[in-house]
Amino acid sequence: MSETTCHMSISLDGFVAGPEQSLEQPLGRRGMELHHWHIDEPLHDADARARDLLMRPRGAYVMGRNMFGPVRGPWQGDWRGWWGDEPPYHAPVFVLSHYDHEPIELAGGTTFFFVDGFDAAFARAAEAAGDGGVDIAGGASTVRQALAAGVVDELVLDFVPVLLGAGERLFDGVVDPGLEPVEVLPSPLATHVRYRVGR
Question: How far apart are the first and last CA of the chain?
Answer without folding.
Answer: 15
